[in-house]
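Archive transcription. Copying these from loose printouts into the bound notebook so they stop getting lost. Printout 1 of 2:
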Amino acid sequence: MANGRGRREPVFDAPAAEAGELDFHLSAEDRAGGSMTRRRASRQDDEDRRPRRGSRPKKAKRKGRSLLGKLIYAGVVLGLWGIIAVGGIVAYYASQLPPIDQLSVPKRPPNIAIMANDGSLITNRGETGGRTVTLKELPPYLPKAFVAIEDRRFYSHFGIDPQGIARAVYRNITSSGGLQGGSSLTQQLAKNLFLTQERTASRKIQEAILALWLERNYSKDQILELYLNRVYFGAGAYGVEAAAQRYYGKSARHVSLSEAAVLAGLVQSPSRLAPNRNPKAAQARAELVMSAMKELGFITPDMTKTALGQPAESVKPNGAGSANYAADYVMDVLDDFVGTIDTDIAVFTTIDPTLQGAAERVLVDELNAKGQKFNVSQGAVVAMKPDGGVQALVGGRNYETSQFNRATSARRQPGSSFKPFVYLTAIERGYTPDMVMEDGPVNYKGWAPQNYDRKYRGPIALRDALALSLNTIAVKLNMEVGPKNVAQTAQRLGITSPIQANGSLALGTSEVTPLELVSAYAAFANGGIGVTPYVISEVKTLDGKIVYKRPSSAGSLGRVIDPSAVAMMNEMMHNTFVIGTAQKAQIPGWPMAGKTGTTDDYKDAWFMGFTGNLVAGVWLGNDDGTLTKRVTGGNLPTEVWHNFMKLALKDKQPVGLPGGERFRNDVPVAGGGGDPRYANAGNGENAWIPPQPQRRANSREKNFFEKLFGL
């Protein structure tokens, strides 16, 4: 008790006031000890409240901050490596391109515009199919149509359109429709200029690099102009000019709004949207184009309404028919005049589009009407001026099915149409049209040629023997004057094909082309001047620079026939229309001359004829040499020639033949027309009874043929 006297124990659950009082009465020592105790307790409490090292809450908090930091760090690192990788890939594919400082836009393959003699376009030749055009030449809505449907932000992006790419990706993912693709016009141009059409990542990277280069070096209008002249429209047409000619038969300078919309929509899929093959799909696409143009303010609502009410209609291209045969001939000879071509040129020709169309039409109509009946499938027509300028050249029935040019490349036996060269050789050696020879059987060492009708007429004047195309007289003349001399005569007049100088030469057994045979006949039509056929009169660049101009004297072979001989030959060949095998070819009022030709096996049938202003020739037959069903020069070829000449000479004043004073220009009506030399043969046909002129005093027939046969 004593030890506890006066000592008070603290009461911890006492009220604060009492506790304060209690503490107040503590001794100084107690207060000091208690204070230290409280400070230790306070520090202990602070330590208890502070998270212990290694405790779970402390560890979780530090782990969360570390993961976020690591993710950020990893993202930065991966981004940097991605940039490096992309840069490396871009640098690698850029290294596969030519050095940027040496890069240049490749030249566009030159176009060759082949023009008719009236300045109209026949067709385009070259890799592109059309000439280069400038933006200034085009109607404003045409280039705007391409911008609207292919790259509406063309004038605002830097060559690559991120929004367009994003839209394309979204469309591919969602399979939703859209108006534009991912590639900008600049990228498409880069692909067309420098790259292949393969769809690979490497090609897209290179495309983007080149697009940036184009944007840096060319203005937007220059890029658009390059694009319009390089993009592919299908059917061999590169560039908007070629496409306009191909599908609408007109220059891009003259296309309507509806036609422009079709062309702009076509580049997405040239094969699927071709207006000549799939007009409904082409029109549907064109309506999308016009909708985009209206949305962008490129055209007014009224313009849209008008265009939708007048949808574009494709036409058959000019080059689909016989004009392409003429164009092929132009291209065959062009190198001889202009050499290497490195720019667009216009080739002005002698082709008359009216005569070209007429020649094609009459040939096709005749074959369609009678080809099957007579078993003849092909033909060729050539017409030229007497100076050699080719005005029509049809090399076959249908160019689309056969591009072989029978007018210039097919060598066929001319038959009796070769006989004028035999008669001319005789005339030049003193024979005259009035001289008489005996039409009778001939036999040369077993070879016994006969006349077409297997009949003989006895004594007959040369003029009538040629008109009636008697084989026996032609063979006798050939043997008398010498086959070599006849061959030389034909070559002098322009026959360039090889000629076999033998006894059968008089019957046209040496093959020739229609073009060279017509050009040889031109010497009769022009008074005796030999000509080389020509079709090119002038060549110019698009800026008007003359590359070639045909001299007025070019192509002339000089005088190859004496004027008196020309007069006698024309008299005899005129007789073919009066009493001979070409009576059906007469055109009233026009003095004409010519000669039919038929091979003895009916493989080939010809007619060569001329007036004073036009020479024309027709060949009919089969490419494989199949025999026709008795097609002769006097039936189908004569009909084609007559129908063509009737159109060619319409509304023209008759022109006399050289030497025309020697014979009448009034041609009797077909079938005799009261000519006293005709009498009825009893079979419904008019048979000609020849006059009985005096026989030549000096006959050269005796044993002469046997001596010359085979020469």
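Printout 2 of 2:
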Amino acid sequence: MRKINSKFITTFISESGSFLQNKDYFAFVELDKFAIYVIADGIDNDADLDSAKIAVSSIISNFSETPSMRKGFLKKLLNKANRELIDQSKNLRLKASLTIVVTNYVKIRYAFVGNTRFCLFREGFLKYKSQDQSLTQQLVDKEKVQLDKLAEHEERNNLYCYLGQDENLTPYISKKIKLKNGDIITLLTKGIWENIDSSEMRDGLVEATESQEVIDNVEDMLLSKQPKDLENYTLGVIFIDKIYENPKLKQKIKKIILTLIPIILILAIIFSVFYFKNKKRTEQINEMNYCIKNASDYIEDENFIRANEEYKNALDLAKKLKLEDKRSDIDKYFKLTETIINADKYLQDSKYQEALDEYLNAKQKGYYADNLGKDYINEQSNKTNQHILVLDLLKQADKKIEFEDIQGAKQDYTIARDLAAKIFFKEAKQEAQDKLDKINEDEAQKQKEEKEEEKALEEEQAKTDEEQEKEAKEKLDAQLNAIEMAKKGDVSYSIGSYHDSKMYYIMAQEIYKQIGMYDFSDELEKKILLTDKKIQESTVKKAKADEYIKDANAKFDEGSLNEAKILYLFAKDIYEEAKLDDDIKKVDEKIKVINTLIDKKSPQNL
């Protein structure tokens, strides 16, 4: 009951800064008796594996199994994360700086390796702060470098301890620190502390009434400085609005009885008057807690409808009992299950886009509700995405039929059919199979007609010498024409115009067939198949880019301009690789609009 009877509010931001890839990662989990907050900074250059995410996921997973605040336990968590990075290293050695904060909602203990940082502010002043495990910090300790120059010193990222090293790990693990109501904890990576010092961070906290306001203040200060090469920056802020307090009612009552015996009789009379009222309230509180427990059990069984009903009952009791903090917590769980139910209903009704939007909404709400149902939400989101992909493939194949790209359509129908079968999407599977059968029938009929034409030609062998000479000349002209078409196909292929290339190859192939040069026709068939593969790859890339465009549009609508710009740039890279000029032009227009909006928001335009 510690978590429910305390109030820790956590907000964070994590951006890539001047880089295309964000190597930072922040995550937390708040359990009943313990909570853990973890921030990491990937300090390797591996583009495929995210060392920060791997390390944080290892810490969170192992902590959730047997949560504790013991020093030995925290060191064990860090050693496991260190081994995880070493084991997963492939092309490059994975490395990361990492900071942990663990709490029992009364006290905290922090531990770190590298140069991610921990700060605790109390009553507007910096009370506790971690020290980097870097060469620069050692020079500061020896008074060879001034403290205020640490963020600028060239050796600030030269670490003697970090996750991913082969040597024995020597993390710093603090003693337990007693929390007070109103404390504020910040976790930050070098993209923040290299540009924002502790006094500026304190200014960002002044008069802030919620953690999101701190995030916004600090980010505004950071971006207003316009650093030339801004590192990935991540900031996590934890508001300690209320720590857990153990009332120890029995001890207090006993003390009152021993010290105030003359008043006991009066209190007994008063107690008898309110006894039944308090008893009923206690029963209602127990009933509310029982409903919460039942809801948690139903969520584990993925029965969100019954869980929602139990949370509704608990919420009604919390309102009736005027337990505002409890009511706020239960309301988060109630709204989360309600959103999941709505998403499931949309999915059942084949409203896949609406379902996907609701699952994403549920995922966001899950951050503030102990990540309940996270695995189920991710599974359903993936399932919904796959349904959308199948329908998009069918539409794409239908469009290719209109443009007589039969082989391309056939490939799309096959992919759609196989994926539909995998996710038990029966209607789409049947539609794809029916259209494949129709294509095969048309191709068989075409082959039959071609054989009949060939047979007719074989029967017309009685030609005069003049006719044969004319036929030979026509055949030579046709062969030269076919060679010219094949060359145009090769040129188009070399510049990435795969549809034009396929058209020229097919034209050349038809000419070779007409003049009976089937060996050349077979060679062109190989090129046509290779071109189809390139067209398919381009289609898949475009589909990926279109997903980025979709996500970017959503971020643009939310007002997250920098995130939207990055997603548009990802899409543009794919369009350029696929040589999709019209799409590139549209993306450039979007980016131009974003740049204009960002310029308007910049300090010099205010």
